[in-house]
Amino acid sequence: MTILPEPRRTTHSANRGGTAGDGAGSIKSAERVLRILDLLAGQPDGLAAPEIRSALGLPKSSLHGLLRVLCDRGYVFIDARVRRYRIGIRAWEVGQAYSRIRNVAVLVGPVMRELRDQLNETVQLAVLDGLDNLYLAKVDSEQPLRLVSGVGLRLPAHTTALGKVLLADLPTEELRRRLAGVTLARFNSRTIGDTPRLLRVLAEVRQAGYAEDDGEYTVGLFCVAVPVRDPAGTVVAALSCSMPSARAGVGPERAPNFLPALRACATRLGALMAPLPDPQDGLALGG
Amino acid sequence: MTILPEPRRTTHSANRGGTAGDGAGSIKSAERVLRILDLLAGQPDGLAAPEIRSALGLPKSSLHGLLRVLCDRGYVFIDARVRRYRIGIRAWEVGQAYSRIRNVAVLVGPVMRELRDQLNETVQLAVLDGLDNLYLAKVDSEQPLRLVSGVGLRLPAHTTALGKVLLADLPTEELRRRLAGVTLARFNSRTIGDTPRLLRVLAEVRQAGYAEDDGEYTVGLFCVAVPVRDPAGTVVAALSCSMPSARAGVGPERAPNFLPALRACATRLGALMAPLPDPQDGLALGG
DNA sequence: CGATTTTGTTCAGAGATGTGAACGGGGGTT
DNA sequence: AACCCCCGTTCACATCTCTGAACAAAATCG
């Protein structure tokens, strides 16, 4: 079991308490409650209390109060037979509110299915969170092809076409800040493993208006992605199609083959999806 | 804007602090964080900080710390242009973990679509949460019919066929506890409006193994629902089909028409969905 | 463009929460 | 069946959070 690397970091440096460990003036119980949810979300089989304790380094007596609140409110439930805590129905319900905001649940599906039928390839929609892309929706090709991605899952943005499109849209300064001190994970020899090269690739993506992934995460898988812009021009997501490299053909013109259909679909999706800023912008609380 | 009635209540009566307002020894910030999420989940357009404050009765200075934690962790984000807080992507991500646990995302859809094709009516899957049924999945009929329900939404269980099936499965004592002091909302003349009658109906449902809803929530809408049992026989959800009363016909044999198909599908779904207890069981923390 | 109202931030005292150690209870094991 | 081990619970003290009012900063309005 791996604990996710600290995904988000506040820019605020104000510190009240003095000792400061991490949160910098943050509210301990609030933080912990969310950490527990984060942790449990990654564990389909749930976690026993002692496992949560050791994963998050919480004292025994502190954890129980938190778990009781989470259980009482339905965000977590305990499977009594195995004494394991799992994500509860209330967490799901709250999450649905997000996809309703973005119209993902009802409106986006049919449009994406059309594109899938047009291309007969797997089609995906993702947004950026930190340095990961997060899959909002997916319509599988009818051809047999299993992707490791899936709705609600995340992959490192620098390894996917979707991710590169989304990263390319960030202001340079923001991009550098997010990349500062980060080591880009490599999954095979084609993965972009260093920041300078990533920045060069992103510049190309920005100019071309689309990104490719030629087996950079999964060997043998080729993807093309384009940004999804709302009517105001803001990038609200990215749209991709994925296929075995063999089916994509070779040479520099294989990506452009898919662009017209992808772009047409992206335009429709952009009109559907509410014009919301990148989640990360939540930091700008203090102005 | 209405605030949901306190949905869950712990059975624990232990009380540490003494003053007790509500939570009885609960952790204030933890509770508040979840309350904020609950509140924002119901507001597609988000809420400004003062609105959150008045809705939850929080002091000005307390709210900001909580919101900062929620924003930093991505559970909430602030739309800077309108200064409104909304449910964030992380909340969605965590919620997806729940539907993955129950296999709702990937496996349940195709099976339900088959049933829809068989019956050519809208098919829905729901679980119980307190006295509400919560829609996990839905496959629309191809005939024009708009239901007020939808994935992630909840309706009072006593007004729907799904809800009645789910309530009927509760042990009598648990049922009485949940109904204690509750006034059953009425939506039209057919809605079951008093507890004794509800208990009688539920007894019939228990015996028959299915429930009907003949316009009790939406006038003119007829539904039939059956329990979804896992291989061990535990009810893990309920499955229904809905149609305009006109199409259902009249007389006592209209529901049985749908039962064979519904039950066959429910059996398949039960095998797919992990054997998880009712969310409410989370209360049994103390053993 | 300036005044006004509303919102966000800061601060120190009051009060509730977090902590660690000891107790009680189950479950698994031999 | 009894033991042992581990988990969950309880408690009082130290600590950190919550609070309310005053201040500062926007946003709105005329």
UniProtKB/TrEMBL annotation, chains A, B:
The keyword Membrane does not apply. InterPro entries: GAF-like_dom_sf, HTH_MetabolicPath_Reg, Tscrpt_reg_IclR_C, Tscrpt_reg_IclR_N, WH-like_DNA-bd_sf, WH_DNA-bd_sf. PROSITE patterns: HTH_ICLR (PS51077), ICLR_ED (PS51078). One of its GO terms (biological process) is negative regulation of DNA-templated transcription. Residues 90-275 form the IclR-ED domain. Residues 1-25 are annotated as: Disordered. Keywords: DNA-binding, Glycerol metabolism, Transcription, Transcription regulation. PANTHER family: HELIX-TURN-HELIX TRANSCRIPTIONAL REGULATOR, ICLR FAMILY, HTH-TYPE TRANSCRIPTIONAL REPRESSOR ALLR. May be an activator protein for the gylABX operon. This is Glycerol operon regulatory protein. It comes from Micromonospora sonchi. The lineage of its organism: Bacteria, Bacillati, Actinomycetota, Actinomycetes, Micromonosporales.
